[in-house]
Every structure is written in C-alpha cells, then in structure tokens.
C-alpha cells in the first residue's frame, strides 16, 4: 500500500478555495512588453535577405539617431536599414497597436466578444476602393497615394453607410450595428469579387488577394507618421474613456445609471474606430485576427478592466505584428507571405493554448 | 439641498409620461419618496414599472413631466452629476466580459472620479472594500463576477450602488431569480443602505413586508398608493392583478399576508 502523503490530506482544502481569475499585474507586464517591442524592432531591422550583421545594424541605427559618421561603403546598408526595414517594422507596430486597440473598443461598443474592427464593414468597404485602384487604375492622378487614399475614403464611406443604416430613433443598438455591418460586408465583398472577376488578369487578381490578406510591404516614411499620429490619437481618446468603456461593457442601463450616456459614447467610439481602422487599412490592407484575438489575449492576462486592457492590448498587438511581419518576409524569401496568413498561423495556436491553460470566461459563465 | 417645499422629498416624479417607439407606456405618473423611505412599485407585467424606473436613473427621457431629486430635475443635471445622486440596480444581465467583483464595485466610483485618466484612488479602493464588507461580500473581491451565484451578484451590485453614495437607490425587481433566503437578505440590505429607495417588486407579500409606501401601477397609470396594508386590499387586487386575494394574519410575526387563487 502506498504511503499516505501529507499533500493528499491538504488537497481538499486547496480545492475548496474560491477560484479567482489569475491575473498578471498590468504595469510590469506593459514594461516587459515595451522592452520586448523595442528589442523586436531591432530584430526586425537586422533580419532580412541583404545579410547585414547585427553589429553593423546597431551601428547604423545609432548613426541615424545620433548623426554619427558613416563609412563610404555603408551608404547602401544605411538605406536598407533606415529607408526600407525600419519604416516597415515601425508600421507593423503601429498597425498592430491600432488594430488591437480598436478591437478592444469595438468589442465593448457592440458588447460582443466576436466583434473586431472589421465587423462594421470597414475592411470590405476599403477593399472595394483598393481594388478599384488595383484593377482599373482608378485615381491614377494621385500617384503612389492612390491606393491608400482610395482605401481610406471607401472605408469611411462604408462606415457612414453602416452608421446611417443601423441608426434608429433610440441611437445605435449593438445588435443592429453588428448585423448591419455584417450584411454590408457581404455586399462589399461581392462588389470586390465582381471586380476581380471582371478584370480577369491573373496578376491583378493576385495583388487584390495580397491586399485583402494584408501587407506591410508598402511602408515608407511617407505613410508611417500619418498612421502613427492617428493611432496614437485614437489610443489617447480610448485611454481617457476607459472607465466609461467598463460601464458600457456592463450594459446600456448600467452605463446610464453610472453617468455615462451610452448613445453618445457609442457614437464617439464609432468615429474614433472608423478613423483609426480606416487609416490602418489604407496603409496595410485588411489584416485579420489581430483586432479579434489580441483583445481576448490581453483580457486573459490582465482581466477585462479597460484601463489595463488599453495599456496591454496595443503593446501585445504591436509585438505580435512585428514578429508576424518578420516571418512573412523571411519564411519563403524572397517571396512574401500575406500578413493575414501568418497572423492566423502564429496567433491561432498561441490563442488556443492560452485559452486552455487559463480559466477564461469567454462570453459567458464557466 | 433646496429650501423650497420639495426639498424634504428626496424623490418626486411629477406627472411623468413616457413614450417608446411612438407608444405611450406611462401616463402622467406622480409619486414621491421622503428621505429614507422605502417605496415599492407593484403592478402586473407590462404595467410600465421598469419604464418608469428607467426615467429616474436617466436611461430614458420622459415625453412629459419631470423627475426631481432633492428638488432638482434629473434630466437637467449632467449625467455624472445625476449618477452621484441616484444609483440603480437595473434588470440587465450582460455576460460577455469577465470583470472581477472588485472591478464591478469600483465602477460605482466612476461618477465621482476626477480627471478621466485617473484610476481608482486609495480612498476609492477603501470605499469599495468597505461596501463589499457591508453587504457581506468582502471575501468575493477577487472572484470573477460571472462566476457568482444570483444572490452573490445582487449583493455585489448593491455594493456598487452604495459606493456611488447616492441619495436615492432605484431597484428593478431586485429579488428576481433568487431563493427565499436571498430575497429576504437583499431586501434587508436595501433597507440598511439608509438611502431613499424606489423598488419595483413582483411579490406582493415581500412588498407589503418591506416597503413603507406602495404605488400600484396598471397600464401605465397609478391606480392606488399608500401604506401597504391599505393599498393591498382584495377589491383592488382583483381589478389590477385579476386574482382573488385572501388576507390572513401571520401566526408568528402577526403581519398580514395575502393568499392568492384564481378569480371564481
């Protein structure tokens, strides 16, 4: 007979303890994520087909920041680091942060765990505009800006259309918003599909596909600042509204009783989400998964409170997308994988693993 | 508060009518609650109880009339200002996001928080812990709100209302889905809160036992009001609820209780 150990006797007591959700303190986690993000940006600049050494990359980054002197033969390497890889890595971080933050906002806004920034019809709307450029050369007078401008304008038009259709005398109700956005998405997708079909050129269809799945290949210092400013402004607004988002997530009645006007807040969130998502989609295409899953990932780590969530989710989104981009451009180099393929390949297993390991009430009691 | 005649009344609903989707659900309802009173609102399903309560905590705007808190019109106050005077336990069960009990209670400090970026202060946290202890839920602080039982949830929501430091507490069927122990417990907690209370209740015996004053609502109109023993008489109950009510005296407490069966 095996000896009875003291641990078996103690087991019932620990089992009876109330199951509190395990949470990680948000501030230390944010510090770790920030450090990891900065390190990852350096990695993203160092890794690539041109075969620059780590030492050289660090020296070139330092030279650019401090105005240090370059060797004569380093001009090409300097251009690769500063004009190609760094803007791309920074854009990945900005896009990841923007999608994660708007994902948090939209999920609270429509009180639906399955919502993401694209549920309001924005990505499919932007696709129509982008494909009009890719397929038929629309807005050619705008030059290199044609694609981004067209995607941005059509994203906003799509959101205005969804807003006006979903609006009732009682304001925007969550379910109507989701249903209207979803229905409109199918409509926009049909228009995009029709354009791809009508163009009937293999290469155009391929670039349309690439755009739909997202790509950071077009990053330049021309596009990064606009995206960064919009995302930061959106983040600032959302951080200020964190307490109100908590109240809204509990329900419209509760929000009203806590001094938050749910209709007004929802309208403001709609505008902020539209601006941020429209900008992000315009510079990177429709990158899926990040806006849906990163908010949940962050909730599993720090809980549902929006102050902590809006600190951690953007950092996690930025970190994820920087690495996703590294993988997407190195795995099959010199060919590039669409970002959406890699976000799914990297993110889905991570997410499922975390969900199994942690007690997470996903859209309902446990 | 104000020094005029309505100052002594914490809550006055003055000829309030409410329309929803073009249909008038509440017709010129007038009711009052003096400081510290527990006022019950009873009536059949669909009589407009919830609709009227929603006007008091500002989830709805009346089509006509006014809701006065300490003499001031609720809908003229800033939303945060109103939320510092009236707290609510709405009938609303959202189960999408897993806040902890401490986070849910902390939301009650939202109307008091200065500076949008400021998190809960140390004083706020003490306030919340004290409120949780007061409703006997201190041990639940770290739990997920969604994992609580119905009785525990109501206690936590009462704690959230308490940290709002309201003068008036509005409750919409606070005993719904609770077993009898928890029904009595919740109503005792509400009484102990010390605020003026306006509560909708389905159970007429609970209403009779726990309210100082009752208003009976039928088809959006007040049809009777007064102390429970006067209001809950068989004739009115037959007319409003379509039941036959027989008052009996409780053999232990001596309180009048109602027994119900179908009208002959």
Descriptive account of the structure:
The complex is a heterodimer of chains A (366) and B (264). Chain A is 73% helix and 0% strand. With 366 residues, chain A is an all-alpha fold. Chain A is globular and about 65 Å long. Helix content of chain B is 30%, strand content 29%. Chain B contains nine helices and twelve strands. In chain B, α4 crosses α5 and α5 packs parallel to α6. Chain B starts with 8 loop residues before the first strand and ends with a strand. The N terminus of chain B is likely disordered. At the A-B interface, α10 and α11 of A face α2 and β6 of B.
Mean pLDDT reading of chain B: 89
Which strand order does the major sheet of chain B show?
A: 6-7-8-3-9-10
| Helical segment count of chain B | 9
Helix content of chain B: 25-40%
Number of individual domains of chain A: 1
Question: How many beta-strand segments of chain A?
Answer: 0
Oligomeric assembly: heterodimer
Radius of gyration of chain A: 23 Å
Over the alpha carbons, how many angstroms does the gyration radius of chain B reach? 19 Å
Distance from N terminus to C terminus of chain B (CA atoms, Å) equals 52 Å
Q: TL;DR?
A:
Chain A has 366 residues and is mainly α. Chain A contains 15 helices and no strands.
Mind sketching the topology for me?
The complex is a heterodimer of chains A (366) and B (264).
Chain A lengths: L5 H11 L9 H21 L7 H13 L8 H35 L12 H15 L9 H21 L7 H26 L2 H12 L10 H17 L1 H9 L1 H6 L4 H23 L5 H13 L3 H25 L8 H19 L9
Helix pairs in contact in A: 2-4, 2-14, 3-4, 4-9, 4-10, 4-12, 4-13, 4-14, 5-6, 5-7, 5-8, 5-12, 6-7, 6-12, 9-12, 13-14, 13-15, 14-15
Chain B lengths: L8 E12 L2 E12 L3 E5 L6 H8 L7 E6 L2 E2 L5 H5 L2 E4 L11 H6 L15 H13 L15 H14 L4 E5 L7 H13 L3 E5 L3 H7 L2 E6 L2 E6 L1 H4 L2 H8 L1 E7 L6 E7 L2
Parallel strand pairs in B: 3-8, 3-9, 6-7, 7-8
Antiparallel strand pairs in B: 1-2, 1-4, 4-5, 9-10, 11-12
Helix pairs in contact in B: 4-5, 5-6
């Amino acid at each position: 007979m095996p000896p009875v150990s003291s641990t078996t006797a103690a087991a019932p007591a620990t089992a009876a303890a109330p199951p509190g959700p395990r949470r990680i303190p948000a501030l230390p986690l944010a510090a770790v994520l920030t450090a990891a993000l900065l390190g990852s940006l350096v990695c993203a600049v160092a890794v690539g087909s041109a075969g620059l050494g780590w030492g050289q990359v660090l020296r070139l980054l330092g030279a650019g920041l401090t105005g240090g002197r370059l060797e004569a033969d380093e001009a090409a390497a300097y251009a690769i680091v500063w004009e190609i890889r760094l803007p791309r890595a920074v854009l990945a971080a900005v896009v990841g942060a923007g999608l994660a933050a708007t994902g948090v906002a939209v999920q609270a806004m429509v009180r639906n765990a399955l919502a993401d920034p694209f549920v309001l019809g924005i990505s499919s709307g932007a696709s129509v505009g982008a494909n009009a450029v890719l397929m038929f050369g629309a807005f050619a007078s705008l030059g290199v800006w044609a694609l981004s401008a067209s995607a941005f304008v059509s994203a906003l038009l799509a959101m205005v259309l969804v807003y006006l259709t979903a609006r009732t005398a009682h304001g925007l109700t969550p379910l109507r918003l989701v249903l209207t956005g979803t229905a409109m998405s199918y409509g926009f997708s049909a228009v995009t599909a029709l354009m791809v079909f009508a163009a009937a050129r293999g290469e155009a269809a391929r670039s349309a596909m690439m755009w739909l799945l997202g790509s950071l290949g077009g990053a330049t210092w021309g596009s990064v600042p606009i995206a960064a400013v919009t995302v930061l402004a959106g983040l600032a607004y959302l951080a200020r509204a964190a307490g109100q988002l908590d109240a809204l997530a509990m329900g419209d009645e509760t929000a009203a009783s806590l001094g938050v006007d749910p209709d007004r807040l929802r309208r403001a969130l709609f505008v902020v989400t539209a601006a941020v998502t429209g900008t992000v989609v315009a510079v990177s295409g429709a990158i899926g998964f990040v806006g849906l899953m990163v908010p949940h990932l962050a909730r599993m780590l720090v809980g549902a409170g929006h102050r902590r969530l809006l600190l951690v989710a953007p950092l996690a989104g930025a970190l994820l997308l920087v690495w996703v981009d590294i993988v997407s451009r190195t795995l099959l180099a010199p060919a590039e994988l669409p970002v959406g393929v890699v976000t799914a390949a990297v993110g889905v297993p991570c997410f499922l693993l975390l969900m199994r390991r942690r007690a997470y009430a996903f859209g309902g009691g446990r | 508060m104000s020094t005029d005649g309505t100052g002594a009344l914490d809550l006055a609903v003055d000829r309030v009518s409410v329309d929803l989707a073009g249909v008038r659900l509440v017709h010129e309802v007038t009711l009052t609650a003096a400081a510290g009173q527990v006022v019950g609102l009873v009536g059949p399903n669909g009589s407009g109880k919830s609709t009227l309560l929603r006007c008091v905590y500002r989830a709805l705007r009346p089509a006509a009339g006014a809701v006065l808190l300490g003499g001031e019109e609720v809908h003229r106050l800033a939303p945060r200002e109103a939320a510092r005077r009236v707290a609510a336990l709405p009938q609303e069960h959202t189960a999408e996001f897993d806040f902890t009990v401490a986070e849910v209670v902390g939301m009650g400090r939202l109307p008091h928080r200065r500076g949008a970026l400021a998190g809960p202060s140390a004083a706020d946290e003490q306030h919340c812990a004290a409120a949780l202890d007061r409703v006997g839920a201190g041990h639940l602080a770290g739990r997920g709100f969604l994992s609580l039982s119905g009785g525990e949830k109501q206690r936590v929501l009462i704690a959230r209302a308490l940290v709002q430091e309201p003068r008036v507490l509005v409750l919409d069927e606070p005993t719904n889905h609770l077993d009898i122990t928890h029904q009595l417990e919740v109503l005792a907690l509400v009484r102990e809160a010390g605020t003026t209370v306006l509560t909708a209740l389905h159970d007429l015996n609970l209403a009779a036992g726990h309210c100082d004053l009752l208003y009976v609502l039928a088809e959006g109109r007040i049809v009777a009001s007064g102390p429970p023993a006067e209001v809950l008489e068989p004739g009115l109950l037959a007319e409003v609820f379509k039941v036959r009510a027989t008052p009996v005296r409780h053999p232990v407490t001596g309180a009048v209780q109602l027994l119900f069966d179908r009208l002959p």
